TrEMBL record:
This is Carbamoyl phosphate synthase ATP-binding domain-containing protein. Residues 7-45 form the Carbamoyl phosphate synthase ATP-binding domain. The keyword Magnesium does not apply. InterPro entries: Biotin_carboxylase_complex, CPAse_ATP-bd. The keyword Protease does not apply. One of its GO terms (molecular function) is ATP binding. It comes from Candidatus Pantoea carbekii. Pfam families: CPSase_L_D2. Keywords: Biotin.
């Protein structure tokens, strides 16, 4: 995870060697395919194209829903989400 400030400073919040579950949110906002566009380019070129630093084109939200039963010590509770 990283953060880019308005002044252009680039900060890592965390570094993981695997593709994050949330990568689909980034892909939908920036309009890129992280696997094809970024990972393969870095493998070949060792640099990233500046198009990846452009402002997002849209907004995206990802959510995880946990169904837990607080009466049963927060054990999983299978319910239908509609």
């Amino acid at each position: 995870m990283f953060m880019i400030l308005r002044q252009g400073a680039f900060h890592f919040l965390e570094v993981n060697t695997h593709l994050q579950v949330e990568h689909a949110v980034t892909e939908s906002v920036i309009k890129i395919d992280i696997i094809i566009d970024c990972m393969l380019q870095l493998t070949v070129c060792d640099t990233m194209d500046s198009k990846y630093l452009e402002k997002p084109h849209s907004v995206s939200i990802e959510a995880r829903i946990y169904a837990e039963n607080s009466i049963k010590n927060f054990q999983p509770n299978l319910v239908q989400v509609s």
